[in-house]
Amino acid sequence: MDALPRRERWNHNIEYHRVVLDRVPRGARSALDVGTGDGLLAVELSRVVEFVTAIDNDEGVLERAQADAPGSAVGWVCGDFAGYPLAEASFDLVASIATLHHFDDPGGALARMAELTAPGGALVVIGLARSRGIRDAAWEIPAIVTHRITSARREVWEHTAPTTPPRHTYAEMRVIARGVLPGSRFTRLALWRYAIVWERPQEVEPLAARRASV
């Protein structure tokens, strides 16, 4: 169990938990945290959503997450998200932080998340991408300034989950998101992150067909 209390932990991923929490649909009863890692977001979600499922394929990381949150109401699942049998359209909120770039096919992973999102529910992804070109370079200075100011006040807490550098650029991820999730919003965030937010219409759409075409 980590000696640093949860409320004092901070890093570039934790900074954007609020983006997810602010988009929990009114009356949501179920949520899925894809690539939960240390389980911090899942535990926060469990305070506002009755049924929270947290999935990760790293058994050791998941065991540490459970040990770090004794008594939490989170349902911990060790398995491969792409193939694990989760019921379609069964989660009012599907969320993922710093996970999408781990997939060889991020478009396919996004489509799978969309399939699992219930009609009227929300899909929120906080992701990493690779900078390229002048437009991306313009984000570097505010990112560095924000990091230095915040890290001067708060110690940067390191996740125990494995990391990998992103292969796709921000522009590429924007195109992928628009193609898989028409109507979604893609937003650059200050600390080398982006957000994808999509609300599934009340009427169930043939998302499986869209996934096959990604």
TrEMBL record:
SUPFAM superfamilies: S-adenosyl-L-methionine-dependent methyltransferases
Domain of life: Bacteria
GO molecular function ontology, one term from the record: S-adenosylmethionine-dependent methyltransferase activity
Keyword Methyltransferase: yes
Pfam families reported in the protein's UniProt record: Methyltransf_11 (PF08241)
Keywords: Methyltransferase, S-adenosyl-L-methionine, Transferase
Record domain Methyltransferase type: where: 32-125
GO BP terms, alphabetized: methylation
Protein name in UniProt: Class I SAM-dependent methyltransferase
Record lineage: Bacteria, Bacillati, Actinomycetota, Actinomycetes, Micrococcales
